[in-house]
Design goal:
49% helix, binds pyridoxine-5'-phosphate, alpha/beta
């Protein structure tokens, strides 16, 4: 199981005061030392946290892998093709949202996504679709040429009702098996924290988790290195259960 650390919220802290600190590039060095397998960052259309400059600098310095999350737009495709991250994860994006809400509707954007995936793959980038655990979205992702999916775990993570959480968890398990059988790499993320991550990490068909907010929040108290190491350990324990 690989752990991707989403460093957006280091940049959020910088942007709220318009300072030049904390620097997300410093975060990259620390999280890689602490055991991160990849660096995930979202260049939003409104540039509310990660900047174009961050993306350029991090691409040049990353010693693991860079996973660039981006909206399905021409502007982002051009940036990705120029920067050439190892992976791109296409996500839905709305200006007024606090964070990504739900998965991308791949079924409703097949033609657009097919040509975008073509362009990205021709640039040597592996493409993933951030989708809800839904068979039709998985099939559509495969038919667009994506090599991976990232299952949106936000509904499972945010659920306050036991029955809803269990239902959502079984949807995630079924989706992971279905996508894996179609030959897709299966990733998962959103809303995962030190309490709810173990069950997801224990799903054998999932090979990568992307986690941001809970780790950066924990880092306020224990430091970034320790926050990443602890998450890594929780995941290692869950996988070996
Ligand atoms: N994966 C995707 C595709 C995301 O958009 C995000 C949030 O930017 C994450 C994972 C990480 O979510 P969280 O910050 O809730 O851990």
């Amino acid at each position: 199981m690989e752990l991707g650390i989403n460093i957006d919220h280091v940049a959020t802290l910088r942007q709220v005061r318009g300072t030049d600190y904390p620097d997300p590039t410093t975060a990259v060095k620390i999280v890689e030392k602490a055991g991160a397998d990849l660096i995930t960052l979202h260049l939003r259309e409104d540039r509310r946290h990660i900047s174009d400059r961050d993306v350029e600098i991090i691409r040049a310095m990353v010693s693991t892998r860079m996973n660039l999350e981006m909206a399905a737009t021409d502007e982002m495709t051009q940036i990705a093709c120029a920067i050439k991250p190892h992976d791109v994860c296409i996500v839905p994006e709305r200006r007024e949202e606090l964070t990504t809400e739900g998965g991308l509707d791949v079924c409703g954007k097949l033609d657009l996504l097919r040509s975008m995936v073509d362009e990205l793959r021709n640039a040597g980038i592996r493409v993933s679709m951030f989708i809800d655990p839904d068979a039709s979205q998985i099939e559509a992702s495969k038919s667009c040429g994506a090599e991976a999916i990232e299952i949106h775990t936000g509904t499972y993570a945010d659920s306050t009702d036991d029955q809803c959480r269990e239902l959502e968890f079984s949807r995630i398990v079924d989706a992971a098996c279905f996508a894996h059988d179609l030959g897709l790499k299966v990733n998962a993320g959103h809303g995962l924290n030190y309490e709810n991550v173990s069950r997801v990490a224990n799903i054998s068909k999932i090979s990568e988790l992307n986690i941001g907010h809970s780790i950066i929040a924990e880092a306020v108290f224990v430091g970034l290195y320790e926050a990443v190491s602890r998450m890594k350990q929780v995941i290692v324990d869950a996988v070996s259960e």
